[in-house]
Amino acid sequence: MVVVQEADFDAAALQQQLRRRTATRAGAIVTFTGYVRDYASDASTHSLFLEHYPGMCEREIEALCAHAKSRWDIDDCLVVHRVGELANAEQIVFVAVASAHRGEAFRACEYLIDALKTRAPFWKRETLADGKKFWVEQRQSDHEKTEQWNPPSTSEQAGDK
Amino acid sequence: MIKVLYFAQVAELTKTRQEDWPLDAPVSGAQWLESLIARYPELAPGKRLKLAINQEHAPLDALIRPGDEVAVFEPVTGG
């Protein structure tokens, strides 16, 4: 399930929802929650504004979930991503993956958040405490993290990390 | 005709979010971006423009065809 919404979410309730949906099959649920934080060491973040491409955004994340299901032995995944104006320390994104086995769930969850950051059409505009606003640039390190998951066959053969 | 969508900083620079663009024959993404920058020179400096065609990420050598929905944006920053 993929949801893009302005409203805040209840991470515990979402995890329960996935747990009910995968009960008796899932031996493990791994979750990731992302929060707004101070991004620069020398300036405090006041808020983020998140814009997205409705339609493509949901389809892109669904495609990432489908890819995760084909690559790892996972039962189901759930992604909720917020858009609009978010104050510092608020929740931004929630990813949960259910699997019979924890290793598969950990890997798929990390893949989903890494890939989402470089594939899903969201853009952040940051407002600093002094009122300065700017569009955030994609980090090279985020790009590299996603690249590390490719190609699937090579990384899995390299010791099945 | 194609439908063009602009997002985030690109939308701020073009001062529009959506417009119809005349197109009567297929053209590569790279060629089309040249005509876009000719119309909006403010998009040129230092912008790493990305395209999606019909809501899928598209390489610059992908073909844009009449009737397509084309989105223009900078590298994404969600999560």
TrEMBL record, chain A:
Annotated region (Disordered), positions in chain: 139-161
Catalytic activity, EC: 2.8.1.12
Keywords, sorted A to Z: Molybdenum cofactor biosynthesis
Short name of any one Pfam family annotated for the protein: MoaE
Reactions catalysed, as given in the entry: 2 [molybdopterin-synthase sulfur-carrier protein]-C-terminal-Gly-aminoethanethioate + cyclic pyranopterin phosphate + H2O = molybdopterin + 2 [molybdopterin-synthase sulfur-carrier protein]-C-terminal Gly-Gly + 2 H(+)
CDD domains in UniProt: MoaE
Annotated Polar residues bias: 148-161
InterPro entries: MoaE_sf, Mopterin_biosynth_MoaE
Molecular functions (GO terms): molybdopterin synthase activity
GO biological process terms, semicolon-separated: Mo-molybdopterin cofactor biosynthetic process
Pathway noted in the entry: Cofactor biosynthesis; molybdopterin biosynthesis
Signal peptide range in chain numbering: none
Family per record: Belongs to the MoaE family.
Subunit structure of this chain's protein: Heterotetramer of 2 MoaD subunits and 2 MoaE subunits. Also stable as homodimer. The enzyme changes between these two forms during catalysis.
Protein name: Molybdopterin synthase catalytic subunit
Organism: Parapusillimonas granuli
Automatic annotation (TrEMBL), chain B:
Gene3D superfamilies reported in the protein's UniProt record: 3.10.20.30
Keyword Oxidoreductase attributed: no
InterPro entries the UniProt entry points to: Beta-grasp_dom_sf, MOCS2A, Mopterin_synth/thiamin_S_b, ThiS/MoaD-like
Top-rank taxon, per record: Bacteria
The keyword Nucleotide-binding belongs to this UniProt entry's keyword annotation: yes
Molecular functions per Gene Ontology: nucleotide binding
Pfam families: ThiS (PF02597)
GO biological process, one term: Mo-molybdopterin cofactor biosynthetic process
Keywords from the named record: Nucleotide-binding
GO terms for cellular component: molybdopterin adenylyltransferase complex
Family per record: Belongs to the MoaD family.
Protein name (database record): Molybdopterin synthase sulfur carrier subunit
Organism field: Parapusillimonas granuli
Taxonomic classification: Bacteria, Pseudomonadati, Pseudomonadota, Betaproteobacteria, Burkholderiales
